[in-house]
Amino acid sequence: MIPGIGAFTRDTLWCFSQVKGTMETGTTEADIISTVEFNHTGELLATGDKGGRVVIFQREQESKNQVHRRGEYNVYSTFQSHEPEFDYLKSLEIEEKINKIRWLPQQNAAYFLLSTNDKTVKLWKVSERDKRPEGYNLKDEEGRLRDPATITTLRVPVLRPMDLMVEATPRRVFANAHTYHINSISVNSDYETYMSADDLRINLWNFEITNQSFNIVDIKPANMEELTEVITAAEFHPHHCNTFVYSSSKGTIRLCDMRASALCDRHTKFFEEPEDPSNRSFFSEIISSISDVKFSHSGRYIMTRDYLTVKVWDLNMENRPIETYQVHDYLRSKLCSLYENDCIFDKFECVWNGSDSVIMTGSYNNFFRMFDRNTKRDVTLEASRENSKPRAILKPRKVCVGGKRRKDEISVDSLDFSKKILHTAWHPSENIIAVAATNNLYIFQDKVN
Amino acid sequence: MECALDAQSLISISLRKIHSSRTQRGGIKLHKNLLVSYVLRNARQLYLSERYAELYRRQQQQQQQQPPHHQHQHLAYAAPGMPASAADFGPLQLGGGGDAEAREPVARHQLHQLHQLHQLHLQQQLHQHQHPAPRGCAAAAAGAPAGGAGALSELPGCAALQPPHGAPHRGQPLEPLQPGPAPLPLPPPAPAALCQRDPRASAACSAPSAPPGAAPQAATAASPPASPAPASSPGFYRGAYPAPSDFGVHCSSQTTVLDLDTHVVTTVENGYLHQDCCASAHCPCCGQGAPGPGLASAAGCKRKYYPGQEEEDNDDEDAGDLGAEPPGGVPFAPCKRARFEDFCPDSSPDASNISNLISIFGSGFSGLVSRQPDSSEQPPPLNGQLCAKQALASLGAWTRAIVAF
């Protein structure tokens, strides 16, 4: 039984909900989505792109009239977060591409998020304005200054309703703390600090202080010739504000406790699975590099993504993962060509659903995969314009690895490796997923009966 | 794993990637280049071991034609089943064509040298076991060869290796050497097996220390041990990782490192590329000059093999002496530098690209950021005639990763 098919299954049926972005085939590189993130309530969905822009979607209130349509996401705010920069000292151009967006929990009417490019982290405040003061004394209605000599009376400006305007303002800029490229940011559960990780170092920041940060991990060797691994991702524990993990290009994960020492170079736990020697190849190091690490919502597990697999680790067991899921093992024999066309360096992300029962990650040909940890069933779905009718149920896809290709299956050689799904997000409490396919953002929901 | 590319193509592709990363937006990506350097190292291991296998195979062939007294030393190291499969590797290009027979004596001689080297490796390995500490050039992981068909056994080299039976250490790269089900005699070492560098070798020996079991470090220079089976073989690749930056020792170039944090430029003086290393104890490099014949001591003089050598040896007077080598003694050949200026007769079509890359490597990876003025010791600037083969031969050029960073 294929999960997702059939009326009598309890498996989730996924339906198309929306797609954002142009349909044109010629994509400008700046429109390529580089990060997707729901906020803590799921009301807002933020995307960052290679052009340094952030687009925030807000879920509309569900109306009683249209019970079949769950709230749709509409554009709420768009702003330019980062601009291209040039480091004159090192003659390096700094890309404006948004590497990560992380939301802060909402504490007042405004929303706050962190966005980062390769070098600089910014804290943005997104707030609504639906009133505007009118009746200035020194300015007229168009804003032109009035000649004070002509003012004969004084009045008190009043606030009048106006069309809703959402404005984003940069509240903090955390710059000049990273020599290497920032790959991760993570907000601490204390909501006062966050960390930023680059290839070799991890820094701890306080939201209020921009001119200082603490370095908590430094794996840069004394001699760069001895470099063997880099940090690829880092995340704070969801509940314990002293604990964080970081993954390496060697396929290892280290858990650190900030209470142990100021510099967490020595890990508290070290997660590594012995390599299977029969799988050794030229590219073993590349495919074992971890591209993403995520704590489960419960904080008990971590999930890691390397090129071909997703693994779930129990924090209490360091010597091997408790679950390993093959994402696209049929690529194992294609590593040479994937190396030639650079696809082997793609960094796929992975996400948990709200209850930590299902994990999701992307693949090529605009496929993405979901693995149910309880039933051990998995499904491959596709984000494509062909399946873009509202509430159309997504049909599971299958890649045929050899032999006779059945109808509706796609052979490995027909996969389009330029269409890759690197970034996905799952609503914190509902079955709503956002899937970034190059310059389009697809939103899928489970079928509402 | 099916791989349509041979080691050489992989090397040129990898070099091209590194080269093009210089011009990409956003600066050089450390992570990606690190991964590419791993591929480079793996490909180079395979390439070198393939060449060794070919050499061995030829030597075996020749032995069958030679009178027995020439074979006494070599047969002792004949690993059963190994050389026959070397032919499975496919055509290997040794030194650019030429008369194979003319090179036979050379090959045999070199093999003999390698056996000597191997002896020393074993000694060092014992030493390593007792003194697990420090520096590079650990003895060969003379692990039993991989059991897979066609798999070459591990080729010891100047590498930070793990004991063949050792379990992978925590925190270290896991490269379990596959102990074969039946222990086979230790195979002769890799052609590019390096000078024995004693762990206590001085700091002048370029790249700094790393504990033997430490994570594979600089993808540098010469051969790390590998037990590379041909790509098509199921037991494709087993082997320990090369030693770190020890390889930089035997290059007659300097490595310049620009630390982006402190903006300090450091120049690390590397030793000479020796053909013969002195006896075990100390690294003869580091400017001590060419060892004299007297150094062919008990441990024997080791003769380093590198591909460009064969052509030289054909013209070398010593070639004539190879047929009558005294047992246990080894003819000494003076140190030779890496022959950057040697042309590869069948240079690959993308030689110019690769030569650009070699010019980068000529001054270490730091060529990506800054170029140091060539010292008198450095080989002349490389021109367009170089090909990947020469790149492989230039042991010192393979500093790992991005010293530019």
From TrEMBL, chain A:
Statement: the UniProt record of this protein carries the keyword 4Fe-4S: no
Record's keyword annotation contains Transferase: no
Record-level GO cellular component terms: protein phosphatase type 2A complex
Any one Gene Ontology molecular-function term assigned to this protein's record: protein phosphatase regulator activity
InterPro entries: PP2A_PR55 (IPR000009), PP2A_PR55_CS (IPR018067), WD40/YVTN_repeat-like_dom_sf (IPR015943), WD40_repeat_dom_sf (IPR036322), WD40_rpt (IPR001680)
Keywords: Repeat, WD repeat
Superkingdom of the organism of origin: Eukaryota
Family the entry assigns: Belongs to the phosphatase 2A regulatory subunit B family.
Annotated protein name in UniProt: Serine/threonine-protein phosphatase 2A 55 kDa regulatory subunit B
Lineage: Eukaryota, Metazoa, Chordata, Craniata, Vertebrata
Gene name of this polypeptide: PPP2R2B
UniProtKB/TrEMBL annotation, chain B:
UniProt biased composition (Pro residues): 176-191
Compositionally biased spans, kind Acidic residues: 309-320
UniProt biased composition (Low complexity): 122-144, 215-232
InterPro entries hit by this protein: IER
Residues covered by region (Disordered): 122-232, 309-328
Family to which this protein belongs: Belongs to the IER family.
Protein name, UniProt field: Immediate early response 5 like
Species classification: Eukaryota, Metazoa, Chordata, Craniata, Vertebrata
